[in-house]
Design a protein that fits this description.
The protein is of the alpha/beta class. The chain contains 14 helices and eleven strands.
Length: about 375
């Protein structure tokens, strides 16, 4: 297992409530790099790599903290010895998978459900999961005037980000375990599942057109800031309170042709996760600075401060939980039973982890042969 630790237990430095904004405004990158952890020699240090550029996709979500911080702080770029990063931001898993399959993306940060769907639809030919990135950061937030207990969800309208996405699958599975039924295509049933873009969900919640939402951070914290109440944290539903929320995937073609670049990127993500866990407040500010660059404004402290500690960055792909998520999608009748043999190739990750003195991670028997 990865040695990653929850962000909440690493707060060793007392800071004022305004520190995230101050750090963001001041651009503390040079100061932050003084605190970088010592790690193994960079995979590409001192030598030119085999590709002139690498196209990396990610979401502007806190659950993609490794990408946000790694790009903002230059921790990934530092390992690439002149190979340029071409970052691409996405708002939905299917569009990122389409870019990967279409050859316009090389490496991506993405959730487990689109990883599974992309692998199955290509019959195992287009992608590999090469690392974990994050666990947790998903909550059920409700209008406390309308919903006071979990049983009160029956008959209510609850948003998820997209049909068949990771949160949609999790919510449909939870509904089925309650003994309730919902049509997976229409979302109609004992609970009305309303598929709503995360950008729209806060306004829908404020207007009262939905009663709650099962969503990732920072959307969950935005709903709380608008008067919502956290009724359930999804970590409570998983053994060890861990489940994969973000993977790192790669085009099989790119992996075959440029393994040195992939190894360098993974060296950067491992170093980034180590830095995030060692410097949680600086990392939070860094992620917020990247979100500001993406969307034109940073997250309000009342949103990012409660959201950030609920996310665990980790190199471990938590492969056992991906298998269970696939089973949940099958049970919800969103997909047929998938053959996931070969979806993982953790060879380069475990090489990087070994060089950094960290333990190897498991593919749960789903590794490429």
């Amino acid at each position: 297992m990865s040695a990653a630790r929850p962000l909440t237990i690493l707060r060793a430095i007392a800071v004022t409530a305004t520190l995230p904004l101050l750090l963001t405004a001041c651009g503390y990158g040079s100061e932050a790099k003084k605190d970088e952890p010592k790690a193994a020699d960079s995979a590409g240090a001192g030598k030119k790599l085999s590709a002139p550029e690498v196209r990396i996709g990610y979401f502007p979500n806190l659950t993609h903290a490794t990408a946000l911080v790694g790009l903002q702080e230059g921790l990934i770029e530092k390992e690439l010895s002149g190979t340029k990063i071409k970052p691409q931001s996405f708002n939905a898993g299917p569009s990122e998978i389409e870019a990967l399959n279409g050859g316009s993306l090389d490496i991506g940060f993405i959730g487990p459900s689109p990883s599974i769907n992309g692998y199955v639809k290509s019959k195992g030919s287009n992608l590999r999961i090469i690392s974990g990135s994050a666990s947790g950061g998903v909550k059920l937030v409700v209008n406390p005037d309308r919903i006071k207990t979990l049983d009160d969800l029956k008959g209510k309208k609850i948003a998820t980000p997209q049909k068949g996405n990771t949160q949609d699958v999790a919510f449909l599975n939870w509904i089925s375990e309650k003994g309730w039924t919902v049509d997976p295509e229409s979302g109609k049933g004992d609970v009305s599942v309303v598929r709503t873009d995360n950008k729209v969900t806060p306004d829908a919640f404020k207007q009262g057109s939905i009663d709650g939402a099962w969503v990732p951070e920072p959307t969950a914290a935005k709903l709380v800031s608008d008067g919502g109440s956290v009724l359930l944290d999804e970590t409570a539903l998983w053994p060890d309170k861990k489940f994969v929320i973000t993977n790192i995937i790669v085009s099989q073609k790119f992996l075959k042709e440029h393994p040195d670049v992939v190894e360098a990127v993974l060296t950067g993500t491992v170093r980034t996760n180590e830095w995030i866990n060692a410097n949680p407040d600086k990392a939070k500010a860094s992620a917020n600075a990247k979100l500001e660059a993406e969307g034109g404004k940073p997250l309000d402290p009342k949103v990012i401060d409660p959201a950030w500690p609920s996310i665990l960055v980790t190199d471990d792909p938590l492969a056992d939980t991906l298998k269970k998520q696939a089973d949940h999608a099958v049970k919800a009748k969103l997909i047929e039973q998938p053959d996931l043999a070969g979806i993982y190739d953790l060879t380069l990750l475990n090489k990087v982890l070994k060089a950094a003195g960290k333990p190897a991670v498991s593919d749960a028997g789903l590794g490429a042969k």
